[in-house]
Amino acid sequence: MNLAQRARPTLRPMSGAGRIVKAECILVAVPFQSDAKPVWAFTSAPKNTFDTMLVRLETDTGLVGWGEAFSRTEDVSLRSLIETRVLPLVLGEDAAAISRIKHKLEFGLQNFGRVGPTMYAISAVDIALWDIAAKSAGEPLVNLLGGAFAEEVEVYASLLRYDSEAGVAAATRRAISEGYRHIKLHEVGYAEIAAACEAAGDDAAIMLDVNCPWSVAEALAMEQRMANLKLLWLEEPIWPPENYRGLARVRAEGIHRIAAGENAGSLHDFVAMVDAGAIDIAQPDVAKTGGISELMKIAAFCEASAIEFLPHCALFGPGQIATLHISASQRAVPMLERLYCDFEDELYLGATLPVDGKLPVPTAPGLGLDPDPAMIARFRIA
Fold first, then answer.
1. 46 band by pLDDT with thresholds 50, 70 and 90
2. Phi/psi at 338 (nearest 5 deg)?
3. For position 4, what pLDDT does the model report?
4. Number of Cβ within a 10 Å radius of residue 285
5. pLDDT at 38
6. DSSP 8-class letter at 171
7. 49 and which of 29, 107, 220, 224 could share a cystine (Cβ 3.0–4.6 Å)?
8. 212 and 240 in contact (C-beta within 8 Å)?
């Protein structure tokens, strides 16, 4: 071998996953029950439809990966951002290079936000890449995450907001009758919260997510008033959500365990929360907080920091399935959140509907479930 031959770099063979040759974003909005207020109705009363913002990646080996970005209220602007700013950057990449692609997107798009829509898009790409990786390996995703500690995961019912004592009490009893033993409320009025707790009795534990409405003083006053209700945790009581010092004060002076994190963008936000003494329970969202790669880092950090890892999951697409795999891979298997509402149709044709408050972990390669094409065609937003 001469010197020129010796100096010539050897090209590494492409992975079995292949190169990404097609990337698209698909917005699906499915109607759901209208007897309660959507939790995300912060500025107006949206239509009772629920977004699933799908990202579909296809490689030159024929593998297809599905991801999901957090989305609400038929968000065509988010879809445009994903299509024009994010997906062009992944074309031609080796689909197996998950960490490198994630860093490329985060570093290259940092000026467009480390929390929010850009990170939602990156999260979706990351989920789709893990789906491809597991399909390429011929294994369910959970096996690539270290293997399963459970074959099924307990699901808790995350109720919509009823703003009435009768409505929330009826929903609580209905969820219990369907096998749920943990129920999360989204009420902000004491009377409604107390009515749900009374309806649950000893049949289910009650958690409360108020979606960041209060000042520190207001939160502490409500903490004192709710002391007799025996809530399992209090979630996001402080506005703004990044007010970790205020959250830490509520945690220190109140009686409830504090949960937060669905509005975080990365591992480093959780490090800041823990450093501030702000949380007992970490709630990253796989479709908002950097995807599967970031949630596995956060899970390890939580274990090392004696913080409970319990992902947020107001999702019904690939993000929900990814969260199911992540949960099953944890030694202390966290419960899976599911918004408690009935859809006109199911993206996975009923395969993700809990039975007796539990969901099995898919065992087919990848996420183990692909969205139904007919369902997508029926509810796709042009």
1. low
2. -140, 120
3. 34
4. 23
5. 76
6. H
7. 29
8. yes
Q: Determine how β-strand 258-260 pairs with β-strand 234-235.
A: parallel
Nearest to 363 by CA among 372, 351, 378: 351
pLDDT in tens, 70-82: 999 999 999 999 9
The DSSP-derived string for 280-304 is SEE--BTTTTTHHHHHHHHHHHHHH
Res. 248 pLDDT band, cuts 50 70 90 = very high
274 pLDDT above the threshold of 70: yes
φ and ψ at residue 216, rounded to 5 degrees: -60, -45
Q: How far is CA 9 from CA 6, 12, 16, in A?
A: 8, 9, 21
How far apart are the C-alpha atoms of 322 and 317, rounded to whole Å? 9
Query: Residue 29: what pLDDT?
Result: 96
Mention every residue, 6+ apart, whose C-beta is less than 8 A from residue 80. Answer: none
What's the pLDDT tens digit per position in 332-354? 999 999 999 999 999 999 999 99
Element holding 199 (H helix, E strand): helix 190-200
Identify the DSSP state of 155. Answer: E
- CA distances (Å), 87 to each of 94, 113, 288, 340, in order? 14, 16, 17, 32
Alpha-carbon gap, residue 360 to 328, rounded angstroms:
10
State the DSSP code for 11.
Answer: P
Of the candidate ranges 3-12, 155-164, 177-186, 210-219, the one whose mean pLDDT is the lowest: 3-12
The two three-digit tokens of residue 102, written as one number: 């994630």
Q: Are 126 and 292 within 8 A, CB to CB?
A: yes
Distance CA 203, CA 177 (A): 10
Q: Position 315: which residue type? A: L
Q: Is 158 helix (H, G, I), strand (E, B) or coil?
A: strand
